[in-house]
Design a protein that fits this description.
Layout (H helix, E strand, L loop, with lengths): L1 H18 L3 E3 L3 H5 L8 E7 L4 H5 L1 H16 L14 E7 L4 H6 L7 E6 L2 E4 L6 H12 L4 E2 L16 E5 L4 H13 L5 E4 L15 E6 L2 E4 L2 H4 L2 H8 L4 E3 L2 H7 L5 E7 L6 H17 L1 H4 L3 E7 L2 H7 L7 E6 L4 E3 L8 H12 L6 E2 L3 H22 L1 H24 L5 H39 L3 H17 L1 H17 L5 H27 L1
Parallel strand pairs: 1-3, 2-3, 6-8, 7-8, 11-13, 12-13
Antiparallel strand pairs: 2-4, 4-5, 7-9, 9-10, 12-14, 14-15, 15-16
């Protein structure tokens, strides 16, 4: 039965693949691809969540992407080198919540996520959800990681996916291996080529070969390992043209580049439209005329609106305006007045890079803590914007439970240690007083009994002994009273003295007294 179901599934998927329709994938997708006849298939898969609002909006777009790739595969190969390398791209989608284990195997942790699966690798798409950008991504990544220039005499004739792109020139070398490794990692962003030295026959020759160059802005810029560091880092920072129109994805990628961003924030407001046009023209002019000087560490661009830049800077900028941002320190500067000439613009940029202007922001501990609270606030705000009831349930429930737990702890809190100690002391005072009275009575009884034993058994001897004792007490009455007072004070100080200790002390006193009185009794007998 299982074998029959597997065959039926295979036939169904194969039929859908031939018709090039969007395939709804399930947990059988992985074993299906591992089959010997299908291991070389290339899949463009859209992972979604049923409850995701953005995912639902992208469903019609995904149908358009499938139709575009289907038409592209049916075209006859032409002179373009990339067309000779076309392979069929199967388009599918998967519910990443229902089949979470499969999605996790492909590294899906957010929704929506688009991945192109080729061989044993899954390449993630980073960019706006636009049909043209997604199709271009699929066409580029589905082909060879590094393409070969064949029959090309100048860089101007180079086929490709648009500028910028990267070219390795020369023979075998360690740099070539680094270039291949970097291409495997960065092919999701740019195209990579290898070319013979003849490509530069009609242009200025490179000083050193082998070499790696980036072709953009109708020119090329060589890679210098001493100045640019790691090749992958240089490719990441050089894959943008001198001037670029930013979206939220490009802004987030440039925010970690370490470059200085010079952005013209524009508005569509009619009253400020002329100012936006002047700022845009000025930034483009400086970027075009000074691209060679600022290519390595400055990125020029423009952006519609200020929502995304405000989120990055945790600020509220008034647009249109010019923003200078150091992505290394996250310090930014907004001039009060727009520069009116390229010279004034360059002077302002030089002062900012030299840190002679009063900048705002930073990446210290204060801004680190502020970023945590700001991100938490933005997440909560986005949830409440989508659904007030969902926000109340997600955030109100744990807060309510926490408040109830704290109130319960306060109401049922036991007395503090100080109150417990005070209560114990109050209970101990009467007990100690009672113990002291018992000890005094016991001591008195022991003294009386010892006195009788020391005076003898006969009535005459007892009367004589008592008389002597009374005489002794009368003679030393004042001394006795003083001792009694001292004993009272000592008793009050030593409230903790146990009755057993006092009893033992009284026995020792009586024993000493009997020893002292024994010579007197023997003398009387004589």
């Amino acid at each position: 039965m299982a074998k029959t179901a597997g065959v039926a599934l295979f036939v169904g998927l194969l039929a859908v693949s031939v018709s090039m329709e969007v395939i709804e994938l399930n947990e059988t997708f992985v074993p299906f691809r591992l089959h010997e006849q299908r291991k070389d298939q290339i899949w463009l898969v859209y992972f979604y969540a049923p409850w995701c609002h953005l995912c639902r909006e992208l469903q019609p777009l995904w149908e358009e992407v499938e139709h575009e790739l289907s038409d592209w595969a049916k075209e006859e190969p032409g002179e373009n080198v990339m067309r000779e390398e076309v392979t069929v791209i199967h388009v599918g989608k998967m519910d990443a919540i229902h089949f979470s284990s499969v999605a996790s195997d492909f590294g899906v942790h957010s929704y929506p996520t688009i991945k192109l699966i080729k061989n044993n690798l899954a390449f993630s798409y980073h960019g706006p959800y636009v049909k043209e950008r997604i199709v271009e991504f699929a066409q580029r990544v589905s082909g060879p990681t590094v393409r070969i220039f064949d029959g090309i005499t100048t860089l101007g004739d180079a086929p490709g996916c648009g500028e910028p792109f990267f070219v390795y020139i020369g023979g075998e070398s360690p740099l070539k291996e680094k270039f291949k490794d970097t291409a495997t990692e960065k092919v999701v962003f740019s195209c990579f080529y290898m070319a013979p030295e003849s490509v530069f026959a009609q242009s200025k020759s490179l000083p050193v070969l082998p070499a790696v160059i980036v072709v953009k802005d109708r020119s090329y810029y060589p890679y210098n390992e001493l100045e640019d560091g790691a090749l992958a880092r240089w490719v990441e920072n050089s894959r943008f043209p001198s001037f670029v129109s930013l979206d939220v994805f490009t802004l987030n990628q440039l925010a970690v580049s370490g470059k200085t961003l010079v952005l013209a924030l524009l508005t569509r407001d009619d009253m400020a439209e002329q100012r936006s046009k002047r700022l845009l023209a000025l930034v483009k002019e400086v970027a075009g005329n000074h691209k060679a000087s600022y290519d390595r560490d400055v990125q020029f661009g423009s952006m519609d609106g200020a929502d995304h830049i405000n989120s990055l800077l945790m600020s509220r900028l008034v647009i249109p305006c010019l923003v200078l941002l150091n992505t290394t320190t996250m310090e930014y500067f907004v001039p009060e007045q727009d520069p009116t000439s390229p010279q004034g613009f360059l002077l302002l940029l030089s002062k900012f890079r030299a840190k002679t202007l009063q900048a705002y922001g930073g990446n210290g501990m204060y801004y680190f803590v502020k970023r945590i609270f700001y991100d938490a606030y933005m997440v909560m705000a986005s949830v409440f914007q989508q659904s007030v009831l969902l926000g109340c349930f997600l955030y109100g429930t744990p807060v309510t439970v926490l408040v109830l737990i704290c109130c319960g702890r306060l109401w049922m809190r036991p007395p503090s240690h100080r109150h417990q100690q005070a209560a114990l002391d109050k209970e101990a005072v009467p007990k100690r007083a009672g113990d002291e009275a018992d000890c005094v009575e016991a001591s008195a009884g022991i003294s009386e009994q010892g006195l009788k034993e020391s005076c003898g058994d006969s009535e005459e001897e007892e009367d004589a002994c008592v008389g002597e004792t009374v005489g002794f007490e009368a003679e030393d009455a004042s001394t006795y009273e003083e001792k009694k007072k001292e004993e009272t004070v000592q008793t009050q100080v030593q409230n903790g003295l146990k009755c057993s200790d006092q009893h033992q002390t009284n026995e020792e006193v009586m024993r000493i007294a009997s020893v002292q009185d024994k010579p007197v009794a023997e003398k009387k007998n004589d």
